[in-house]
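To the structural biology subgroup,

Please find below the input and predicted structure for Putative glutathione s-protein, which we are adding to the shared reference set this quarter. The sequence is reproduced verbatim from the submission form. If anyone notices a discrepancy with their own records, reply to this email rather than editing the shared folder directly, so we keep one authoritative version.
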Amino acid sequence: MSGLQPITFYSHIAGPNPYKVAIALEELGIPYKKIVVDNPKAEWFTAINPNGRVPAIVDPNTGLTLWESGAIVEYLVETYDKEGKLTVPDTAGKWHLKQYLHFQMSGQGPYYGQAMWFYKCPEDIPIAKQRYIEQIARVVEVLDNILKGKQYLLNEKFTYADLTFIPWNQVVAKAPFFTESLWKAYEIEKKYPNYVAWTERIANRPSVQRAYSN
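Predicted structure (tokenized):
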């Protein structure tokens, strides 16, 4: 996008949530400057995000500072997606996009994040691990059912809702501690082919490749 000043994008090298924002920025061709935050609890950064988490952005074009990945993605789309690349024109579709975004933020991310935490926890708590693995498998099944006969969540149109799921989907596919407990135990590739194909389809988009390489 010509004439725009780069958005300052606060991220880190690990963790899925900042990648939602990076993918949205890449999809929309918005110039940005990435700053890796080593200590998000540092005073300078909590002045930007009192919650002490990444991602966050500062947009010099509008004067807005914003945190929370879902809110940032919505902001980028509403502010800069003038051609509707990542959204749809009809009212029902717009609400369905919000529905899926909220499902990702409340129903996918927290379960995946807690599962990772308990698998890395020095104290072995099998019941907690199993609880969150079961919930991840449930979310995968829900998504697989939604995607029956479709390329993306809203049929053939790739949208911002789809991109918000891919960073956590990548964790499930690649994190070693999920291989036996989830991927093999729940036969993800065999039982949920729609989910697997959707994840691969999005992961192969140039914007996703750039977001993970930058």
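Summary notes: The CA atoms of residues 144 and 194 lie 5 Å apart. Strands lie at 7-11, 32-36, 56-59, 64-67.

Regards,
Lab coordination
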